[in-house]
Amino acid sequence: MITSGALLAAFALQFVFAAVGAFTQPAEDGSYLLHSFTGMAVIPALCLLTTLFAALARAPGRVIGLTLLPLGLVLLQVLLAALANAFTDPSGASTPLGLTIGGLHAVNGIVAVHVVAGVLREALKPSPQSSMAGAGA
């Protein structure tokens, strides 16, 4: 439960860090450093820990699979960001295709937050063992 809550907080901070990068003036290569580090190091580590703890807790297979989904969405995020940056004109300016792919990067982030919220909801559900123990008392 703690790691899934930390994962949700990290995803929420991603939006803050993206805004910091977008509004930093003058824009530099390091403007998105917090966003990049959190997305490429912190969130994947928390995804793996969440999956590990779900497996150790003997969560149902569906729940363990759900804990892996955010990691897949993070990999998609990296691909979308790379593609958005690759589709520029010869002068390096954004193109409509690059901007559209960049928009999909944002939408995928929103989807990831909803998936992680679902993981947290599953973590907060009482386990069947604890329900059965309470019924026998």
From TrEMBL:
Transmembrane stretches, start-end: 32-56, 63-87, 99-120
Keyword Membrane: yes
Keywords on record: Membrane, Signal, Transmembrane, Transmembrane helix
Alphabetized Pfam families for the sequence: DUF6220
Species classification: Bacteria, Bacillati, Actinomycetota, Actinomycetes, Micromonosporales
Domain of life: Bacteria
Organism: Actinoplanes missouriensis (strain ATCC 14538 / DSM 43046 / CBS 188.64 / JCM 3121 / NBRC 102363 / NCIMB 12654 / NRRL B-3342 / UNCC 431)
Signal sequence region: 1-18
Protein name, entry field: Uncharacterized protein
